[in-house]
Amino acid sequence: MSKISISSTNAPQVGFSAGTTPPLSQAIVHGDLIFCSGTGPLDPATRTIVSDDLAEQVRQTLTNLVAVVEAAGGTKDSILKCNCYLRDAAQFPEFNKAYREFFADCESFPARTTVNAPPHRAGVLVEVECVAAVVEPK
């Protein structure tokens, strides 16, 4: 069974600054599963952090993640598991509220792990990665 590398222009392209390209794909599809790399609260066009507000960062991060999932043939509702990384554990209640609102229209919430771990980029308060199911093969 082969794997397919996915890239979406509707989510920030990999790379931390001009001229850098980390050794990763936005997602890999293998069989009926989509494995998404971690993404953060960056505007897809400018690759700048959208806000210093956690709730806005959570919404943008999850929007970016869904864009990659959709490019791979999945949907927001086909996300099975999220691993979430918060810069500040004290912000967990605010994170949880924004996360709940984002997935409120889904049949069920994805399985989830949330840990306190400072993201690699200054100003980033949250990063999320996921595994999703393919619903429309590409």
How would you describe the overall organization of this protein?
With 138 residues, the chain is an alpha+beta fold. It has one domain (25-133): 60s Ribosomal Protein L30, Chain: A, CATH 3.30.1330. It has 2 helices and 6 strands; from the N terminus they run E-E-E-H-E-H-E-E. The protein has a 6-stranded mixed sheet, covered by helices on one side. Helix 1 (54-71) crosses helix 2. The longest helix has 18 residues, at 54-71. The protein is globular and about 40 Å long. InterPro entries: RutC-like_sf, YjgF/YER057c/UK114. It comes from Actinomadura craniellae. Pfam families: Ribonuc_L-PSP (PF01042). GO terms for molecular function: deaminase activity.
Protein topology:
Blueprint: E1 3-6, E2 27-30, E3 33-39, H1 54-71, E4 79-86, H2 92-103, E5 111-116, E6 126-133
Parallel strand pairs: 4-5
Antiparallel strand pairs: 1-2, 2-3, 3-6, 4-6
Organism: Actinomadura craniellae
Pfam families: Ribonuc_L-PSP
Protein name: RidA family protein
Approximate shape: globular
Q: Give the tally of structural domains.
A: 1
Residue share in β-strands: 25-35%
| Estimated helix fraction | 10-25%
Instruction: Tell me the name of the CATH homologous superfamily.
Output: RutC-like
The order of strands across the largest sheet is 1-2-3-6-4-5
Distance between the termini: 15 Å
Family: Belongs to the RutC family.
Protein name: RidA family protein
GO cellular component, one term: cytosol
GO molecular function: deaminase activity
